[in-house]
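// run 5 | inverse folding | seed 20
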């Protein structure tokens, strides 16, 4: 590791749980982020700043004025740009050492599986159930850890679905049918909430890559931002889950 890198990442290297070895693991890692909006913006910024070697950014949308209230990776000059283009420009200004790969298309299952096969961790920063279930299926097939978060109105949640045999998947926790109108477009969201949840996704991702601490595997953490109350729910692998149970493979 060169002197400039030692200086850039010095505050992390000082942590005994990480040290130079942990920083090198981050520098050698590949993380894919699906969705460059409210959750993906802070997650990508903190992962790039922390020294992730490669970030693959996936989003087919363009920056809109209504995004700027919460999607802090983009600014007024980016309106009309592809979100991945705007994101790459800002992230590489933040950390030129981070390699950025853009995918400007809707992510179908085959593409998600290909992405999961080549990434160390996937971050679900989408805003609809169809994408979440497809991402979960891809991660189950490729045994890739998935960090999933959601935020709507004043409520946020986050969990980790690891690649360990006894780990529950997203579909163990939620049924395959979801309410498609449960998104920010139809219900609104308070701006800092997505920042909190997206930052936590970055933190869980770093812990997974460096095998540091305890992740949110088997735990769903929820936040009510109106009264700043946190709740934790524990859950187990569903032996009859159609996504991850061997009985349905």
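// decoded
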């Amino acid at each position: 590791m060169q002197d400039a890198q030692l200086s850039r990442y010095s505050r992390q290297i000082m942590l005994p749980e990480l040290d130079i070895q942990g920083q090198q693991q981050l520098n050698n890692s590949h993380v894919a982020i699906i969705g460059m909006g409210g959750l993906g913006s802070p997650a990508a910024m903190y992962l790039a700043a922390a020294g992730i070697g490669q970030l693959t950014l996936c989003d087919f949308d363009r920056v809109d004025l209504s995004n700027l209230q919460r999607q802090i990776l983009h600014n007024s000059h980016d309106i009309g740009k592809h979100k991945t283009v705007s994101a790459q420009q800002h992230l590489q200004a933040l950390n030129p050492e981070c390699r950025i790969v853009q995918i400007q298309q809707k992510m179908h299952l085959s593409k998600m599986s290909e992405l999961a096969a080549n990434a160390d961790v996937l971050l679900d920063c989408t805003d609809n159930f169809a994408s979440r279930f497809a991402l979960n299926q891809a991660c189950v097939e490729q045994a890739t850890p998935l960090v999933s978060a959601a935020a709507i109105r004043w409520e946020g949640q986050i969990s980790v679905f690891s690649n360990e045999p006894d780990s529950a998947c997203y579909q163990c926790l939620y049924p395959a049918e979801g309410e498609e109108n449960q998104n920010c477009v139809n219900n609104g969201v308070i701006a800092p909430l997505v920042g909190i949840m997206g930052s936590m996704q970055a933190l869980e991702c770093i812990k997974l890559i460096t095998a540091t601490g305890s992740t949110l595997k088997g735990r769903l953490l929820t936040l009510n931002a109106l009264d700043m109350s946190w709740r934790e729910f524990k859950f187990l692998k569903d032996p009859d889950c159609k996504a991850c149970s061997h009985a349905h493979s």
